[in-house]
Amino acid sequence: MDALIHKSQDFVFHQEVPPNGGPPLNRLISEFVTPEPDFFLRTHGDIPELDCTTYRLTVAGLVGKPYRFSLKELRQQFPVQEMPATLQCAGNRRCSASAIKPVPNEVHWGNDAISNAVWTGCSLAKVLTFVGFPGHAKHVEFIGTDLCQKEGTETRFGGSIPLARALLGDVLLAWGMNGQPLTREHGAPLRVIVPGYIGARSVKWLQEINLLLTPSRNLFHAHAYRLFAPSVSSSSADWEHGLELGELSVNSCICAIEEVSNGLSVRGYATAGGNRHVVRVDVGYGEPLKWIEGSFQDPAEAGVWRRWQAHTPKLLVGELICVRAWDSAANTQPEDPESVWNFKGYMNNAWHRVRFGMPWENVKLAKPEIEYYL
Amino acid sequence: MDALIHKSQDFVFHQEVPPNGGPPLNRLISEFVTPEPDFFLRTHGDIPELDCTTYRLTVAGLVGKPYRFSLKELRQQFPVQEMPATLQCAGNRRCSASAIKPVPNEVHWGNDAISNAVWTGCSLAKVLTFVGFPGHAKHVEFIGTDLCQKEGTETRFGGSIPLARALLGDVLLAWGMNGQPLTREHGAPLRVIVPGYIGARSVKWLQEINLLLTPSRNLFHAHAYRLFAPSVSSSSADWEHGLELGELSVNSCICAIEEVSNGLSVRGYATAGGNRHVVRVDVGYGEPLKWIEGSFQDPAEAGVWRRWQAHTPKLLVGELICVRAWDSAANTQPEDPESVWNFKGYMNNAWHRVRFGMPWENVKLAKPEIEYYL
Fold it and tell me: What per-residue string of b and e applies to A170-194 under the rule 16 or more CB within 10 Å gives b?
């Protein structure tokens, strides 16, 4: 393990090289803003160590003459913006998918590939407007500094978002996290924050921004983060045909269950993608399921999670508890993880089910104790 | 029936006064652009008959001095825009919801409360920019000329959308439909078209636009078109708490099944809401379900349906066929209509299931023959 990584003592690493992990679930939802030592860590290769003073961001592609910005120039030339945004990996909740059918060669995420922070930086829209771009530019590519092994070659991590999304004003080039300078493991000196999108588009250790006609050809965009039907395998996949992941789907998880005087207090998080926000959480218990509505601890805001809580009657050990969320476009989660299974284990947003006092239902975790209850 | 309504001979009226209905399903998907005589008809009250020459649109509210536009002024002052947009009622597919548990006092829509047309008009964004509005304006209310009975009072139909949505440039004030002047039953002389939103926001016979601080208090916005949990009834509903419907959820339907030489040709439509488009359709058949991927007849475009087709092996009478769609934010449809049931029967987007050669499964239609197959 990289000795420079500073995470909580009980942070759970699902993979050591490169390091990937998250905090215990009950602590994940203990605060609206996740403290940096608890913030989930997603890396695809080495963790670069960059010098803030010599760092330069290149903006190139269809902009004509490439621009190079120092960190100081970005901080002085553009208004400073601060905003909360929840990052969530497309592989969050993969554990329930791989319990249905194995998902090899991917990080075995539990429900912990998600965290929320307050980011400080400048608006990508303002930077793009400053450099100017032609009308035929349609995509904005982000390339990191990190070198990753992918399909037998060494490549820098990257991906793109539609230019129209980049211009909405809430995509940040961030140098701060929770009021502190960005740490090395979270992308210092500069990273992208794309609210409502899969975490992979919030590229860390940002080296280049390229204006493009078409989506990025970077392997982490063109040959990863695409969604296929359950029947497609890694050998039969036509990468051009898969759903190019971008906006997140609606999702929710149970993170903590506590016995209270007259029943159970059930708590968790819920998220929505794009410009949508979470509007409702339904918590079901028993068999047949009885549904109650959860109440929210956090306000409704696009791109930001809402922690929720619900109070169920007393349950017996082994009785079912599940959750599903609704977003502001009336989308809700599918019931069965089998019906959304795909060979990369992305975007599992089936109802989250647990059995009271037992490990997750249907989940064969390497470390099941981290998701035990009571 | 209003003698001035010109619909196809086999148009199916689910209600006569006010008139509400749609075309037979197999014809619904016969063309990308629905011919006007087949376009579904949704009315809440009388159908106004307005004189184009004396017609005026008022733009008021937070704009300061109200503006009044004649149709001629709108046509001459702003660039003419033409675009396809699919309209879909929030009550589409109510029949499968009310088969679970009755949904009284609502139009008993089948899968036919949807159609696609090419609309001609001017951009609402350009009109709003022309009149100007203060920074604290947040919602745009549309009020029609039609008088409707609602909660014991007579009220004009209306509703609102967020100003940010109105400014995206693709919300039209439309006077034309499929290259012809808008007909009286579809809102002449002027109606709103809000792509990706529930049809109720595409207000017909448009009389007023009001810039507001908060969403519309019109009864058809504040006391209708809200989504509640299955446990909520009309008597227990807290209208302030329900999900204020806006963007559509992802949906799909089977509309036609034909025997071909070596199996069945299954066809239908799929839709996505907001700025999302339909990316995939999965067609399942048999028990246990086998899934195949449908192919699309129409391009992927936000706010516009995609008709699809799939080819299954031969099936026995009574065998199951179902469909579910995926949107570009990786949202998919829930499996079970019971889990999305609500007392208004809105936004039923559960997998659409039929049994080969039989009426819809679980559906007690007043006119079951319209949805019989083979």
Answer: bbbbbbbbbeeebbbbbbbbbbbbb
| Min distance B248 CA to chain A CA atoms (Å) | 6
For residue B345, give the nearest of B239, B234, B194 by alpha carbon.
B234
Identity (one letter) of the amino acid at A142?
A: F
- pLDDT top residue among A363 and A53: A53
Q: What average pLDDT does this structure show over A101-105?
A: 90
Facing A332 at nearest CB: one of B248, B329, B340: B340
Q: How far apart are CA A209 and CA A127, in angstroms?
A: 10
CA A41 to chain CA centroid, nearest Å: 10
Q: B331 — contact with chain A (CB < 8 Å)?
A: yes
Residue type, A312: T
Residue A361 confidence (pLDDT) above 60 = no
Tell the burial category of B244 from Cβ atoms under 10 Å away from its Cβ (0-12, 13-18, 19+): middle
Look up tokens 């009885």; give the residue: A290
Using alpha carbons, list the distances in angstroms from residue B117 to B71, B197, B202, B233, B372: 21, 15, 13, 35, 26
Q: State whether ipTM is beyond 0.95.
A: no
Contact of B231 with chain A, judged by CB distance below 8 Å, is answered with yes
Check residue B251 and give its pLDDT.
98
pLDDT in tens, A217-276: 999 999 999 999 988 999 999 999 999 999 999 999 999 999 999 999 999 999 999 999
Query: Is B256:B268 a contact under the CB 8 Å cutoff?
Result: yes
A333 contacts B334? CB cut-off 8 A: yes
Question: Does residue A223 contact residue A239 with C-beta atoms inside 8 Å?
Answer: yes
Q: Which of the residues B225, B339, B349 would you substitute to probe the A interface, choosing the one with the greatest number of A C-beta atoms within 10 Å?
A: B339
Q: Are A278 and A300 in contact (CB under 8 A)?
A: yes
Determine the pLDDT at residue A1.
61
Burial bucket for residue B58 (CB in 10 Å: 0-12, 13-18, 19+): middle
Q: Give the nearest chain B residue to A349 (CA atoms).
A: B331
Which residue shows structure tokens 């239908």? B268
Q: Give the integer Cα–Cα distance in Å for B159 and B217.
A: 8
CB within 8 Å of A178: residues ≥ 6 apart: A33, A35, A36, A117, A118
Residue A171 main-chain phi, psi, to 5 deg: -90, 120
The verdict on pTM exceeding 0.90 is: yes
CB A245 within 8 A of CB A346: yes
- Helical residues (DSSP H) of chain A, grouped into ranges: 25-28, 71-77, 94-100, 124-131, 163-166, 219-222, 337-340
- Report helix, strand and coil shares of chain A as percent, to nearest 5: 15, 35, 50
Q: What is the pLDDT at residue A339?
A: 86
3-state secondary structure of A252: strand
